Amino acid sequence: MNKTVNQKAWFLVLPVLLLVAFSAVIPLMTVVNYSVQDAFAGDFYPLDDKLEWFKQMLESERMWDALGRQVAFSAIILAIEIPLGIFVALNMPKKGFWASLCLVLMSLPLLIPWNVVGTIWQIFGRVDIGLLGYTLAALGIDYNYTQDFYAAWVTVIIMDVWHWTSLVALLAYAGLQSIPDAYYQAAKIDQASRWKVFRYIELPKMMGVLMIAILLRFMDSFMIYTEPFVVTGGGPGNSTTFLSIDLVKMALGQFDLGPAAAFSIMYYLVILLISYVFYTVMTNLDKRDGH
Fold first, then answer.
1. Where does residue 56 rank: exposed (0-12), middle (13-18), buried (19+ CB within 10 A)?
2. Considering the entire predicted model, what is its pTM?
3. Per-residue model confidence as pLDDT tens digits over 51-79
4. Was domain 52-290 assigned CATH 2.40.50.90?
5. Distance from C-alpha of 81 to C-alpha of 169, rounded to nearest angstrom
6. Which helix (H) or strand (E) holds 70?
7. How far apart are CA 31 and CA 33, in angstroms?
8. In the chain, what are the helix, strand and coil shares in percent, each to the nearest 5?
9. Arithmetic mean of pLDDT over the chain
10. d(C-alpha 89, C-alpha 61), whole Å
């Protein structure tokens, strides 16, 4: 006997779908429209070859260089923040006053606006008035993030790690809190080592939240704009000019709306593709560990 399925619940989702359509789909269609036209003096002219701007972007060394810097930055961020967040979560108190205090302290960096984070580190790293820059200079270390390639990258990476590692730690901590005490009791009876407890109990139980953490941190790091722009402005040279910064320079600085629109669509598709790959791999790992 077939059960009658109540479809009225979809009406509750309808406002969200309308909001997403208004805030995301319509602007996206506008960008698609710009990508097949040429803008000049405020007027738009259809292109004979609708893919002209896309071909131009694919042949642009500028875009590929920015993509390489972006991929390198996201890879470094994930390689640092995911293990560090797990380590912090494993060493946080599980109950009591200190657990609550740690949760509050870990949440504080997440509450700071992105432009304020950039301003904090811009001042913090200055050699003349910044605590970090002045201290390193006093120790005889040549540090100047406005002129040195490596100093700029180190500053931007440390800034992002300081800002977002707590997100990974909080998600991992939530996963650890969901593990029943019976698992730890069984491991204690079996005299399992600390590594085995982590490998066979804690890590599998954290895989779900870690998948979310990896996806969130990848997408955010791949779209990062405000913090490095405030600190370095994309410099020195183009050393910290990531895809988002390069896109804004192209669209607003040079007013090349057609190429910028094609650039943004390709940027969007790359994020979707890599996020889908991450999601598929992590889901398969989760299913395999579940069996």
1. middle
2. 0.84
3. 888 888 888 888 899 999 999 999 999 99
4. no
5. 9
6. helix 61-90
7. 5
8. 75, 5, 25
9. 86
10. 42
